[in-house]
Amino acid sequence: MAETQTMTTTSAPAVPKTRPRVEWLDVLRVLATFAVIFDHVANQHWYPIYTETSAYFPEHWSILNFYESLAHWAVPVFVMISGALFLGRDIPPRKIWRKYIARLATAFLFWTIVYALIDYSKGYDLYIVISNLITGQMHFWYLLMIMGVYAIIPLLRPIAKDERLTKYYVGLSLIFAFAAYQAQALFLAFNSVWTQTIRTLNGYFCMNFVGIYTSYFLLGHYLCHKKMTREVRHRIYTIGMVGAAITTGMSFIVSYRLGYPNNAFFDNITVNLFMASIGLFVFARDQFGRLPAWLKKACAWLSPYCFGVYLMHPIIIGYLEPLGINALWPNPYLGTPLVSVLIFVICIGITFVIRHLPYWGQQIT
User: Fold this and answer.
1) How many domains does one find in the chain?
2) What is the extent of the structural domain holding 73?
3) Domain assignment present for 226
4) What per-residue confidence (pLDDT) applies to 6?
5) Which of 32, 127, 236, 247 registers the highest number of CB atoms within 10 A of its CB?
6) Is residue 2 included in any domain, yes or no?
7) Distances 296 to 71, 185, 293, 351 between C-alpha atoms, Å
8) Is the pTM here over 0.85, yes or no?
9) Ramachandran region of residue 228, left (φ > 0), alpha (ψ -120 to 50) or beta?
10) C-alpha pair distances (Å), 5 with each of 2, 162, 228, 234, 285
11) Is there a domain that residue 1 lies in?
12) Is residue 10's pLDDT more than 50?
């Protein structure tokens, strides 16, 4: 990567232009996949209990909120992994569409039909079934978003090749996307009279070009290849820990100030999760290569199954819930970790079987 500035002298582990396994990315992908499940399990019983006159916190809310605060970095890190793998390679637009976007579209179509059939069998209103068939399930927004990012890879690659342009793009994004959104979300949470003013101001700037997920995509490539001194790396680790602390602390503070659970600090479009995500990504780049060989080998084996796990895990969550196997089983402290491991193992097993079906198995997982 051609750089116009030099931050360091210590080389970073590069992602080659070919596609051999990259150990630390495999480990990070598996960890992020588990974090998604962990978040969704905790989220089941995170919501307030409503009465006719008010909403209040259930007894288990604090521990589930803590668990949720630990896992929301997963999606930004997924996008950064994709950026690390794609922006360093010269992939023709036709191949992007015919291979990568086509696979995502195929998986989207197949699994939306599966979820629609499940919803219909459970007696959901026909309008909801058809609506979900069009837009996808709750977590399928990620597929549509990443297809859009893949489509503009040829436009992002020149930015990725220039360090100054990358920093400029991400800097604008931090101001006009991350910070602007977070300010708007906080004003809205507290029913401030300034909410509409901030929303209108954000719209007037018309800075849609500097997107949230395109910034993560660019950062994945940049942080993967950037040479850094030990001091700089430790600063980024610190930024990540501060972001994680803000995510946990402010989610408690704001929720208790409002009197009901609030997720203003849980969104991927927040500065605190931006900080936590880049800190974890750089830490993984620098430290995961030192993990035991057996663990890296296991993650290399699990990594190809992560997409299938992401696609199907809400189905397993939905079938375990009526059995009482959820974030509260056997108690709120153990429930989320135990059930998350169970769901991860079940989904790996199902994905393993599907991926060994002729041709279509790998297209839909």
Assistant:
1) 1
2) 23-363
3) yes
4) 38
5) 32
6) no
7) 21, 39, 5, 20
8) yes
9) beta
10) 9, 9, 12, 20, 21
11) no
12) no
How far apart (Å, rounded) are the C-alpha atoms in residues 163 and 33?
30
Domain annotation covers residue 35: yes
- H or E stretch at 189: helix 180-189
Residue 277 main-chain phi, psi, to 5 deg: -70, -45
Residues 149 and 216 sit within 8 Å (Cβ to Cβ): no
Q: Percentage of residues in the chain with pLDDT exceeding 90?
A: 67
Look-up: residue for tokens 């690659």?
Answer: 157
Mean per-residue pLDDT, 306-321:
96
Q: Helix, strand, coil proportions of the chain in percent (round to 5)?
A: 75, 0, 25
What tokens does 14 get?
Answer: 């590069």
φ, ψ (nearest 5 deg) of residue 50: -100, 140
Residue 211: name the closest of 245, 246, 244, 180 by CA.
180
Render pLDDT for 38-93 as a digit per residue (tens, 0 to 9): 999 999 899 877 766 667 788 899 999 999 999 999 999 999 999 999 999 999 99
Tokens of 96: 């992007």
Q: What is the pLDDT of residues 13-24, one digit of tens each?
A: 554 444 567 899
